[in-house]
Amino acid sequence: MGVLEKEGLRHCSIMKNTSPHWYGRSVFVTGGAGLVGNALVDELVGLGASVVILIRDDVPSPLQEWNPSMTKVTKVHGKIEDQALMERILGEYDIKTVFHLAAQAIVGVANRNPISTFESNIQGTWSLLEACRRSPLVEQVVVASSDKAYGEQPKLPYTEDMPLLARNPYDVSKACTDMLAQSYATTFGMNVAISRCGNFFGEGDFNWSRIVPGTIRSIVQNESPVLRSDGTLIRDYFYVRDGAHAYRVLAEHLAANPEKIRGEAFNFSTDQEVSVIDLTNMILKLMKSDLKPVIQNNAPNEIQKQNLSSAKARAQLGWTPQYTLEDGLKRTIEWYTQYLKKA
Length: 343
Known about the structure:
Blueprint: H1 3-12, E1 26-30, H2 35-46, E2 50-55, H3 62-66, E3 74-77, H4 83-92, E4 97-100, H5 107-112, H6 114-134, E5 140-144, H7 169-188, E6 192-197, E7 199-201, H8 211-220, E8 226-227, E9 234-239, H9 240-256, H10 258-261, E10 265-268, E11 273-275, H11 276-286, E12 294-295, H12 311-316, H13 325-342
Parallel strand pairs: 1-2, 1-4, 2-3, 4-5, 5-6, 6-10, 7-9, 8-12
Antiparallel strand pairs: 9-11
């Protein structure tokens, strides 16, 4: 039985695994239709939460059609920068927990269009946080930052006590997101916590320029996968369902121990650093392909090495990843293989 069918069976019994904390809780997920947001929504709906998501553009996505949880959420259309809209959503839907995932997340787009990226990622964050500050009902806010907020560090792996040294547009936008969240926690005592994750991958990512879906599609089409870089870049790769679980665990701890978690940032990672070429070869091996990657060596404004230590999250939150890198890749490969054959 394939991943699509197995996931479908799980969705059929979606309300049998409810949680006392989440059952009936009104939750707002910005970016809920995105790659990680979709996985988070799926998890929250499965636990009995009442979920509202923000969608900027109605982009056709087979992922939403595949995920029955999307039929069980309230969808609001608009821009994250619209503070009045944020206040309306929080008020009308009695929101108690907010997950802020909405962002322009593509580095190349940020380099071409920095202003729109700054508006979405920076202005959008302060608009949402200010709306949350003004809401009497919001109890917790989890803000998604990124490993990119650290910029280029002289020492690896990244730990949460390192300064944020972002320089390029996307990286700077995430560092600002991060610091805005810390500011609202420190200045106004808001129950805000920050997640910093590596490069997400998983089923339903249709940005084919990303290494995992692009490589899988190339192999399915019997074409050599193309690497924009020279293949030596070191990164964390993080399966989306581990990301969704990490966000949920952080929110639960923020609810249970706000004095301890408020304003804190947590890295979430498998603690496994992998080069782009090694990841590509891993996918080729898992798909039993003899194709060879084409290395373009054309990836400007990329940091050479980035990897995270998740020791703090493991110690303070009791969090551990539920999937190894290989497990996540196997599930992702199976999903795309089935999808691409049906497309």
